[in-house]
Design goal:
The protein has helices at 4-7, 22-25, 41-60, 71-94, 100-104, 111-139, 144-157, 161-195, 198-211, 218-238, 242-266. By secondary structure, the protein is an all-alpha fold. The termini are far apart.
C-alpha cells in the first residue's frame, strides 16, 4: 500500500513536470474574424463605374420602355448585361483565388437545409412586400407625378403572351442569381471590408443597387434601395445568398405576372 504521505506530494514527486505552458493555462478569447476584401478595390471601383454607366444610359433611354417592344428586344439585352456583370465580378474573384462558394455560401447538406431556406425566403418576401407597400403608399402616394412616370415605365416592361412571360421568368431567375451575387455577395463584402462594418457594407451596396434602378424614377429607386438593404441584412444574417436569391427571383416573377394581368385588364 502506498504511503499516504506520498499521495499528498503532488505530481512533481512522481517525476512528472506539472508546469503548464502559459498560453495553455490562460484561455485566450477567440479573435473576431477580420472583414477581408475578396477582390482588389481597383476591381470594385471599375465594377461600380461600369454599373453607373449602364444605369445612366438606361435612365437616359427610359422613355423607350413606355412603349411595348418584342420580348427579345426588351429582356434579352438585360439578361446579357447581367451575365456579363456576373462574369466580370467572377474574374475579379479568381484573381484572388476566391471560390464561388465563398460568395454564395456553403451548399445544402441535408434536405432540411433546403426546406429551411425556402421557408426563410417566403417569410422574408412577405415581410419585405409589407414594408415596401407601406413605404410606397406613404412616399409614392404623395408624389403623383413620380408614381405616374414609374407606372409608364413598368407598363412597357410588363410581359405579354407565352413568349414574353417565359422570357420574363428566365430574366427574373437571372436577376435573382446575378444581382444577389454582385450586390449582396460581392459589393457588400467589399464595402464591409472597406468600412470595417457589416452595416456599412449593407448600406453602401443598397445605395449602388438603388442607383442602378434610377431609370424607374427617383422615388421608385429609393424604395428599391430599401429593398436592397433588406436583402443585404438577410445575406449578412444567413451568411449565404440562397434565401435572397429565391425571394428576389420570386418577387420579380410575381411582380411581372401581376403587372401583366393589370395592364391586360386596363387595355380591354
Amino acid at each position: 500500500m502506498d504511503d499516504p504521505s506520498n499521495l499528498s506530494q503532488g505530481p512533481d514527486h512522481l517525476g512528472v513536470n506539472a508546469a503548464v505552458p502559459e498560453e495553455v493555462a490562460i484561455a485566450q478569447p477567440p479573435r473576431p474574424t477580420k472583414l477581408a476584401p475578396v477582390a482588389s478595390y481597383l476591381h470594385t471601383t471599375a465594377t461600380v463605374l461600369i454599373m453607373m454607366g449602364v444605369a445612366f444610359m438606361s435612365w437616359k433611354s427610359a422613355k423607350q420602355f413606355e412603349q411595348p417592344h418584342s420580348p427579345l428586344a426588351t429582356y434579352l439585352p438585360t439578361m446579357i448585361w447581367l451575365w456579363l456583370l456576373f462574369t466580370f465580378v467572377f474574374v475579379g474573384l479568381r484573381r484572388r483565388n476566391v471560390p464561388l462558394r465563398e460568395i454564395f455560401g456553403a451548399s445544402w447538406k441535408t434536405f432540411d437545409d433546403f426546406i429551411m431556406d425556402v421557408v426563410i425566403a417566403i417569410a422574408f418576401w412577405f415581410v419585405a412586400v409589407l414594408v415596401l407597400g407601406v413605404l410606397g403608399v406613404a412616399f409614392l402616394g404623395s408624389q403623383r407625378q413620380n408614381m405616374q412616370d414609374a407606372t409608364k415605365v413598368l407598363q412597357g416592361l410588363a410581359p405579354h403572351g407565352a413568349l414574353g412571360i417565359s422570357m420574363w421568368i428566365i430574366l427574373s431567375l437571372t436577376a435573382g442569381v446575378c444581382e444577389e451575387f454582385v450586390f449582396r455577395g460581392y459589393l457588400q463584402r467589399q464595402f464591409s471590408a472597406l468600412t470595417s462594418s457589416v452595416v456599412g457594407g449593407v448600406i453602401l451596396s443598397a445605395m449602388v443597387f438603388a442607383l442602378g434602378h434610377l431609370y424607374e424614377g427617383g422615388a421608385k429607386a429609393a424604395l428599391i434601395g430599401v429593398f436592397g438593404a433588406m436583402f443585404g441584412a438577410l445575406a449578412a444574417w444567413k451568411k449565404n445568398l440562397r434565401p435572397g436569391i429565391m425571394a428576389h427571383a420570386w418577387h420579380d416573377i410575381f411582380s411581372g405576372l401581376l403587372l401583366s394581368a393589370i395592364t391586360t385588364h386596363l387595355h380591354k
